[in-house]
Structures are given as structure tokens and as C-alpha cells.
Amino acid sequence: MHISILVPENSVMQAIADPQYLFSAVNQFMVAAGKSPLFTIELVGIKKEVKINDGLFTISISQLVEDVDKTDLVIIPALFGDMKSAIEANEKLIPWIKEQYNKGASVASLCVGAFLLASTGLLNGKKCSTHWGFQNQFKSMFPMVEVVDGNVVTVEDRLYSSGGAMSYWNLLLYLVEKYADRQTAILASKYFAIDIDRQSQSAFAIFQGQKNHSDDAVLKAQDFIDKNVHEKITIDQLASLVSIGRRSFERRFKLATNNSVLEYINRVKIETAKRNFEISRKNINEVMYEVGFTDAKSFRLLFKKTTGLAPIEYRSKYNKMSILQ
Fold first, then answer.
1. Out of 22, 108, 110, 263, which could bridge 259 as a Cys pair, Cβ 3.0 to 4.6 Å?
2. Whose CA is closest to 78, among 171, 10, 136?
3. How far apart are CA 288 and CA 296, in angstroms?
4. Matching CATH topology for 2-203 and 216-324?
5. Helix-strand-coil percent breakdown of the chain, rounded to 5?
6. What does the alpha-carbon distance between residue 172 and residue 187 come to, in Å, rounded to a whole number?
7. pLDDT band for position 323 (50/70/90)?
8. Which residues pair with 6 in a beta bridge?
9. What CATH code is assigned to 2-203?
10. Which CATH number is 216-324's, of 1.10.10.60, 2.70.70.10, 3.40.190.10, 1.10.10.10?
11. Which of 228, 220, 203, 238 is nearest to 291 (CA)?
12. Domain spans in the chain, listed from the N-terminal domain onward
């Protein structure tokens, strides 16, 4: 099986080196078991030497894209820096990615490599994962692609994408299982000390408020929500605050933030609860009341839906004082 790891301009070195290392290690596992190596791995690019990480490193490629007639799997690493600039720097790769996909290759993007994959148009009308911190920008740039919130790995029509940062290891292990077998994927997960089958990046996400817009009325409502997180806030209350009819307010809020009003309120409350669990000794009920909830079951369900963890699990995972008790 032929794997082409792209080496784009303005890409992340680790997201190139790690898949090369992993698939090479799987070949070594095969040889140690008395089998033939499974993968032929090439670093592929537009030119023989590509500068990455803002020019800090140079990678020598093994094959020019123009010399690759057909491959089985294209891996697009995470991009580095400004996404629009990174895409512009790699426009010449886009026709080649589309060509290989149309010839039957699968294409896998790692983290924000999804921006380059989406630039091909192959993801239009399909689902995709990317880094949680870039989801709003991705949605803005590629409105025809459905971003799956929280997913570590998303698969559709030979297109594979991963969540943020080190989540790409879970996609790489998924591909090892697909092209080798489950036992080899488990061996690789143990060799590289990676938690196999992790399905959500939600516990790592930080809700950033989504205030990069110019709607002053919505910004005023967001500011009110932030300062009154301990209260039960209603849509009518916010619409009255900014002197806009409820339906118009809900429409403008969704357009500006990519969240409904209730979704936004709940995300602010859960983000505040997360910070409380991380840095204080408060128990679950104390934190629940501080963010305006009175029903423990509703709070637990919303917290787990948002983070992928129950409140007590989140506190145990991220609170140092809890760990030391």
C-alpha cells in the first residue's frame, strides 16, 4: 500500500514526522512477525525542499507530486500560522489532492490540515473534524462543510479528518486498524503510549465566547450573559435589554455567534463550571448553584453532553488538589 504524506508550505513538522514514524513502525512490527512490510511511505511536495514552521525547519521530500501517478492514501498534515495564508501558499497542491481522490485514493487531514482538504471542495456537503479552537473560522470559510463538534475522528466517503492537535494520533491508529488489523493497531497504541479509541475532544475544548463579529446588540447581550452567569437568563430578557424583537434577536444572535441563544448561555455556564472544577475545592452542588442551575440531573446531563465527562470525572481529571487528596 502506498502512502503519500504531503509536505505543504507552512505546515507543522510533528504532523509530518509522526505519521511517517508510525507507519514505519508498523512495517517493523510486520517484519518482526515474519511478514512483509505493509506500507510504502513517501514524503511528497511541490519542490525538493520545503520550509515549514515559519521557515525554522526544512524537510527534504522523497517524491514530487508531479511524479506520483497514483497513491492509496494522502495524508495532509496540520498547517501552521494564518490559515488563509497557508492555503494560498499551497494552492498548487489542491488539484493534485482532488486528482488522487478521483483516482480512488483516500485522503486524511490531521487537525487544521482540514482547511487545506476543505479548499479542494471534496468536503462540500460532508462532515469533518478539526481543532476545536478553529471551528468558527472553519465554518465561516467553508459553510458547505458540516463540522462535527467534539469528534476526534470523522469518516465519510474515503475522507478522514481528526480533531485538534494530538487527536491526530487516534486517526492514525484508526487507519492502521483499517489497513492492517485491530491487533496491530493495539500494538501501535501501546508502543506509542496512545489511548486508542478516544472518540471526543470535548473535554479539551475551551469556549472562547465567539465575539469576533460586529453586531453591537449581540455583543451587549453576550457581555450581560458573561457577567450574570449565576442567574437564570431568558431570551426575552436579553431581547428586551437590547431593544430588539425576540425573533429578530434570535436570528441575529445565531448569525453572529454560530450558536442559538440558549446554546450560548449554556456553554458560558458550563465553561465557568469547568474553571471552578479545575481550580477550587467546591463540590458539584456548589458549582452547579454558582452557574445558575438548581436541578442536579439537568446540570450533569448538560455538562457531560458538552465535555464528554461527568462533573465528578472532569474534576478528578483536571483538579490537582483533587488528585493529591
1. 263
2. 10
3. 7
4. no
5. 50, 15, 35
6. 13
7. very low
8. 44
9. 3.40.50.880
10. 1.10.10.60
11. 228
12. 2-203, 216-324
Backbone angles phi, psi at 280, to 5 degrees: -125, 170
The number of residues making up the chain comes to 325
Higher pLDDT, 43 or 214: 43
Residues 6 or more apart whose Cβ sits within 8 Å of residue 325 = none
Tell me the C-alpha distance between 234 and 107, whole Å. 45
> Do the Cβ atoms of 303 and 273 come closer than 8 Å?
yes
Distance CA 8, CA 90 (A): 6
Burial class (CB in 10 A: 0-12, 13-18, 19+), 119: buried
The angle formed by the CA atoms of residues 90, 135 and 98, to the nearest 5 degrees, is: 35
Q: pLDDT tens digits, residue range 42-74?
A: 999 999 999 887 778 899 999 999 999 999 999
Query: Residue 263 has which C-alpha cell?
Result: 446554546
Q: Running DSSP on this structure, what letter comes out for residue 78? A: P
CA 82 to each of CA 6, 10, 87, 263: distance values in angstroms, whole numbers, following the listed order: 19, 9, 9, 28
Q: What is the DSSP letter of 166?
A: G
Report which of 289, 211, 286 is spatially closest to residue 253, judged by C-alpha positions. Answer: 211
Q: Cell triple for residue 194?
A: 496512545
- Report the distance separating Cα 15 and Cα 52, nearest Å: 11
- Going through 46-172 in order, the beta strands assigned E by DSSP cover 49-52, 57-60, 63-64, 73-76, 106-109, 127-128, 146-147, 153-156, 159-162
Side-chain half-sphere of 213: how many Cα atoms within 13 Å? 22
Output the nine-digit C-alpha cell for 106.
Answer: 483516500
Model pTM above 0.90: no
221 CB contacts (<8 Å, ≥6 apart)? 238, 241, 242, 249, 253, 261
